[in-house]
Amino acid sequence: MDISRHKCYVFTKHKDTCSGCGACKQACKFHAISMISDNEGFLFPVLNKDKCIECGTCDKICPCVGNKKENATQEQSCYIATTKRKDYYQESASIGICTMVSKYIISNGGYVFGEHHVKLLVLSLSYVRNMPIFIL
């Protein structure tokens, strides 16, 4: 197996070429890639050399090493929003925008979904359709 032409982590084992997203595993039609936790608990792809046919799909699909030239000339945008209400943005991890958007959705008959940490690594999901008292 000549792996020198491949760039992705599954062949190089260079952690700076992998985000652990699993795109390579999902794209492999031959089921040659598994996602395994490293000693810190992060998932990284592991290659089964017996199943790999060196098609290069993992390199093409990888967001860390794939061919990015085709998107290099496309204009990209980034947006930020906040509120002028000091009481919203001082108590908010989202600079107050989630509170504003939630109030708007609820006032138009919608539901707002969210999560909160019950304990370490345990989340509780909930929704509201009326304005809770704790939202100013």
TrEMBL record:
The entry's keywords: Iron, Iron-sulfur, Metal-binding
Record flagged with keyword Metal-binding: yes
InterPro entries: 4Fe4S_Fe-S-bd, 4Fe4S_Fe_S_CS, Polyferredoxin-like_ET
PROSITE patterns with a match to the protein in the record: 4FE4S_FER_1 (PS00198), 4FE4S_FER_2 (PS51379)
Signal peptide segment: none
4Fe-4S ferredoxin-type domain ranges (all copies): 9-38, 43-72
A GO molecular-function descriptor: iron-sulfur cluster binding
Listed PANTHER family: POLYFERREDOXIN PROTEIN FWDF, PTHR43193
Protein name: 4Fe-4S binding protein
